[in-house]
Amino acid sequence: MEERRTVVLYGNSLLMAGVEASLRGRPGLDVVRIDTALPDARERLNAFRPDVVILDLMAPHHWEFAIPFLREHPGLSLIGLDPNSKTVTVLSNQQHTALTTNDLAQVIQMQLCPQGQES
């Protein structure tokens, strides 16, 4: 049985509607869209326990919750779409213990040269 991943589209923009139509029906993905205008939008988002949250970077106030939300949900990836620049920004909740600057340097190196890539 294939592993299913929950993708939440957080927003009610035309961009989110298009992304929903494109992703719906893809193997392994359960796609849900949450209207951020709803008073309980944040609670709904939490209830789905998503693997990935996608939002429109042009929509107001979406980044305000990003860092706190990532800190609350280990393993989550947050993907921001910017239709103007046609870019995708990915934030993930990868936590590492860094007690010294050497530890920090190792984390930096891991980010610059992910596994499987030569430095």
Description:
With 119 residues, the protein is an alpha/beta fold. The protein has one domain (5-94): Response regulator (Rossmann fold, 3-Layer(aba) Sandwich). It has 4 helices and 5 strands, in the order E-H-E-H-E-H-E-E-H. It has helices at 14-23, 41-48, 66-72, 101-112; strands spanning 5-10, 29-34, 52-56, 77-82, 87-92. It has a 5-stranded mixed beta sheet with strand order 2-1-3-4-5, with helices on both faces. Helix 3 (66-72) links the parallel strand 3 and strand 4 (77-82). It is globular, with a radius of gyration of 16 Å. It starts with a strand and ends in a 7-residue tail after the last helix. The mean pLDDT is 85.
Question: Briefly, what is this?
Answer:
The chain has 119 residues and is α/β, with parallel strands linked by helices.
Question: What fraction of residues sit in β-strands?
Answer: 15-25%
The CATH C-level class name: Alpha Beta
CATH architecture assignment: 3-Layer(aba) Sandwich
Shape: globular
- Number of DSSP helical runs: 4
- Summarize the biggest pleated sheet: 5 strands, mixed
Poorly predicted runs of 5 or more residues? none
Question: What keywords describe this structure?
Answer:
119 residues; alpha/beta; Rossmann fold; 5-stranded mixed sheet; 5 strands; 31% helix; 24% strand; globular
